[in-house]
Structure formats: C-alpha cells, structure tokens
C-alpha cells in the first residue's frame, strides 16, 4: 500500500503575499482525497508546495516517513510523486511519445504500463507521433495525467483535471481516475466539479483562506447539502 501524505502547519509565501497560513492536511495512504474550496482558497498553492515548486516557509510535509519540505521538485518526483498541474503542462512542440518519455524518470517506458494507459486513453496511441500542440483540450489533459502515471507512483497530485472538458470526456476521465485509484496509489485531487468529487473521492478536505477548514469523508459531505453550502457556497444547481 502507498504511503500517506501529511502536512503540518505549512506556510507558503509568494513574494510578499502570505498564501498558505498553517495548512494541516492528511491524505491517507491508498485513498483518494479531494481537496476542495472556493477560488483562491490556496489549493493549487498547496499542491505546488508539496511538489517543491514553492518552498514552504514553515511547517512539515511528509510522505510516509520521508520529509519532503526541504527537497527540490526533482527530488520530490524521484521519491515517487507525480503531478498533473491545472495548466496541463504538455510540451506543444514535442510528440505525445516524447512528452511521456520526459515523465519516465527511471529509464525506458514500460510497454505493459503503456498498454494499460492506452486502454483508457486510446487517443494517445492514435496520436503517438503527433505534436502534442495539435491535440484537443481533453486529449492534452489526458496526456498530462498519463505523464504523471507513466511510472508507478506513491502519490499523485492532480489539479482540476475536468476543467474546461466536455461532459462526455468528463465521464471517460472519471473512469480513468477510478482505474488509477484501483492501483492503490495515494491521490490528492483538486476538483471544482462536485459531482466528479463525489464520485471518485474517499476523503475530503476543504480549504478556505490558506487553511484547511474541514476534514471528513466524501460520502458524508456529499450527503449534507447544508455543509456543502456553508463550506463551498454550492447551490443545488451546481450538482448537474
Ligand atoms: N504567483 C502568484 N503571485 C501572487 N499571488 C498568487 C500567486 N499564485 C497564487 N496567488 C494567490 O494565492 C491565493 C491562492 O491561490 P491558489 O491558486 O492556490 O488558489 P486555488 O484554491 O487553487 O484557486 P483556484 O480554484 O482559483 O485555482 C490567491 O489569492 C491567488 O491570487
């Protein structure tokens, strides 16, 4: 089973702004933990701080018994952390294949793993030698996630994978997230679409103003519309 993630009292400053203001967050090993919250709550900054792309100015970040908070992003990746950023950081001028090779840190890509990835992202096989820049938004998102999982990981950080995607593609992405989840990897997933969150999340943490303000099971939050309204400002309409 994959290790769990724990943040204790994490502060992050970006320039003169104090963005994370004492984040206490746990993502239990082998489970999918949703990180929710209103725009600007600090979710992306939390993922980037875990990944070592922003340096925590205070606090501890640990994956199992390994401390991450003083490591560079390349060392965090080497410990088995995959990151699919919100911006779908694919290299437009490189082919799909070359983008995936860049995600494989331990050596050549494993054919069986590639076949597994193609199973839920068939477009990546189809456009294997095409420039990533020529893919649709949904396909780029899939490539970004495929890159994060091209090797087995201990922890996956995924930022808003369904953002801007057509509903039909969202369904395919949910299936894919469930497949990835079934491998037993620990997942921390930022998602604005509450329906997706309710479908794939085991646990949920909600952020507001640079702190975690709610911790519980996704099932309990999904069943409590008052709590959703209070924590997320969701109306019933947003459940469509
Ligand atoms: N590079 C930056 N420079 C200055 N402020 C930043 C920077 N990046 C983020 N912020 C600020 O930090 C706060 C948290 O941003 P963050 O992107 O982490 O929130 P979020 O919860 O992911 O929101 P969203 O859902 O809008 O992406 C916001 O007020 C944002 O304006």
UniProtKB/TrEMBL annotation:
Keywords: Amino-acid transport, ATP-binding, Nucleotide-binding, Transport. PROSITE patterns: ABC_TRANSPORTER_1, ABC_TRANSPORTER_2. SMART domains: AAA (SM00382). GO terms for molecular function: ATP binding; ATP hydrolysis activity; branched-chain amino acid transmembrane transporter activity. One of its GO terms (biological process) is L-amino acid transport. Pfam families: ABC_tran (PF00005). It comes from the Bacteria. Residues 5-234 form the ABC transporter domain. Belongs to the ABC transporter superfamily. This is Amino acid/amide ABC transporter ATP-binding protein 2 (HAAT family).
